[in-house]
């Protein structure tokens, strides 16, 4: 799947959490979000001399966030979550496992935060939990597709006219 086709697919399937998404569909969409976020952040930057590069999955929402960040999050937040879930489906991981892993990370962080004696320890706990979350994200995003059909649908790389035997 190419760059433009990936963007069209992800935006069209923004509320479709069923089926599978290939690695190329997922990573082309991440590249698009990164480029768009970098352009918007630098276009509306308060500093005239600064240039910043953004990874694109940074979402800000609220009264203290710039207007363009709220709009960016409102438009692209759901399509990114949807393509990530479909990408997880492509390797055989369901929403239940994603939610369980997210809940465990947040619960562990909350419990450890209450037990930690100093702000420095709390900061290190946040870094550790963030690294575990990033590792899980990368594992799902980079793993090869299941070659055969799985419980979430046919392989996105297979020819749709082929009949599986």
Q: Overview of this structure, please?
A:
- By secondary structure, the protein is mostly helical.
- The protein has one domain.
- Helices cover 61% and strands 0% of the residues.
- The protein has 5 helices and no strands.
- It has helices at residues 3-12, 23-43, 67-90, 95-115, 119-142.
- Helix 1 packs across helix 2 (23-43), helix 2 packs antiparallel against helix 3 (67-90) and helix 4 runs antiparallel to helix 5.
- The longest helix is centred in the middle third of the chain and has 24 residues, at 67-90.
- The protein is flat, with a radius of gyration of 19 Å.
- Element order, helices and strands? HHHHH
What does the average pLDDT come to?
A: 82
The low-confidence parts are 161-165
Work out the helix count: 5
Proportion of β residues?
under 5%
Terminal residue distance:
25 Å
The 3D shape can be described as flat
Pfam families: DUF805
Transmembrane segments: 26-45, 65-86, 98-116, 122-141
Protein name: DUF805 domain-containing protein
Keywords: Membrane, Transmembrane, Transmembrane helix
């Amino acid at each position: 799947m190419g760059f433009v086709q990936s963007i069209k697919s992800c935006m069209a399937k923004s509320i479709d959490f069923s089926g599978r998404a290939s690695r190329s569909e997922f990573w082309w969409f991440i590249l698009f979000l990164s480029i768009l976020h970098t352009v918007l952040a630098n276009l509306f930057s308060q500093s005239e001399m600064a240039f910043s590069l953004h990874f694109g999955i940074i979402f800000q929402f609220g009264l203290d966030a710039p207007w363009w960040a709220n709009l960016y999050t409102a438009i692209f937040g759901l399509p990114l979550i949807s393509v990530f879930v479909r990408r997880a489906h492509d390797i055989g991981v369901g929403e239940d496992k994603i939610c369980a892993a997210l809940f465990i990370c947040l619960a562990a962080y909350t419990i450890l935060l209450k037990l930690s004696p100093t702000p420095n320890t709390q900061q290190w706990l946040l870094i550790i939990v963030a690294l575990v979350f990033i590792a899980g994200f990368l594992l799902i995003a980079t793993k090869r597709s299941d070659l055969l059909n799985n419980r979430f649908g046919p392989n996105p790389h297979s020819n749709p006219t082929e009949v599986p035997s």
